[in-house]
What does this fold into?
Amino acid sequence: MRIIIFVIGFFFSLQGISQVKDSVTFLEMIENNGDTLPHVELDEIPIFPRKFSSRKDERKYGRLLAKVKKVYPYAKIAAELLGEYDEKYQSTNDSKLRRKYVKEAESKLFDQYGAQLKKLTISEGRILIKLIDRETEHTSFELIKDLKGGLSAFFWQGIAKIFGNNLKDAYDPVTEDRMIEEIIIYIEAGVIK
It folds into this structure.
């Protein structure tokens, strides 16, 4: 019997030894009427009232949600890439060097994401155009015109018009693109994965 108690005591003592103490985390405290209460700041998560008048509207919202989730990462990547190359682009007045930077950014973007971007539907492309405007604060037409010139911007605007898109479309989070903005707020808050 003593051996069993010794073995059990030995295992319990090993368990205490093997536990490593983590750093101590203290919570902010608030004193209220003599009581000390823990206080933790939580991130704000906006709630938008969403009532659908019909099953059709609910399905339409679900499709929009799927499309925004698909193209939003591309808009973020485009904005990051633009920010990265914009410094180089603005730092010089040499047109050859500027063209080199634009070609470098284009090739990097199309090498990594060209196949996926070609698979986008027309409506996904329309949403991507608006999200690029949201992320960069410039319409796609303005970006092409600034980086590649007016003739190239005119050409791509013509191609976009053939498919029912408009590179000059601006993002309007208040009225026209309100549902897209709500979805993006939820994505950024981590509510939608």
About this structure: The CA atoms of residues 65 and 183 lie 7 Å apart. The mean pLDDT is 79. The longest helix spans residues 55-90.
